[in-house]
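Entry type: protein chain
Record version: 2
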Amino acid sequence: MSEQKKTNQLIWIFIPVVGIAVIAGAIYAVINRQTPEDESFEQAEAAANVIAAAVVADNNLEDIVKSAQTWGEAFKPWFGKTAPEFTVTDIEGKQHSLSSYRGKNVLVVFWATWCPPCHKEIPHLIELRKEMSEDELAIIAISNEAPGTVKPFVNSKGINYSVASVAGAMLPSPFADVTSIPTAFYIDRNGRIKFATVGLVELDDTKAILKAEG
């Protein structure tokens, strides 16, 4: 057999062997791809979540205010004072007295159907209601518009928290002194005004404020 024929035979034997090796390597890589990297990523992500949770838990209100982008604190002279009593009627006809919520946190939000930032805040409040039970937190959104205006809007947005209309009614200060919306009052389990905000407050900030120490 000539040297040329021997060379050609070796080439045709070598090519399938290499092909099989490449395919086997590819299959192995798919089955086991990035397993060490995936495990490292999951471990790093878990550690980051633990650290983030610890940071939120340790945050005080001053730290949260410093990081705010779309809102600011409001009614600061009222912080730590007992919230004046009021009673409002929601769009379903149920009455809500502030004093009846002692023992749980209360979030009172002033808003309107014509307010764009209020519209953007609604999904965050809906999610907050889903995440926190009514035993932990009461949410009362108050508008000074007529019930006939508020109720269709509430139904169209799928709002799952209490919404009241106070058109023509009088509320005590500081609630009567709200001039910009959305404005929110965070009232603690003892009925004291813990904090107040003006502007759009997203879900993470709202939860941080509820958890934070004053």
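Comment: Helices lie at 3-32, 35-58, 61-66, 116-131, 147-157, 203-211.
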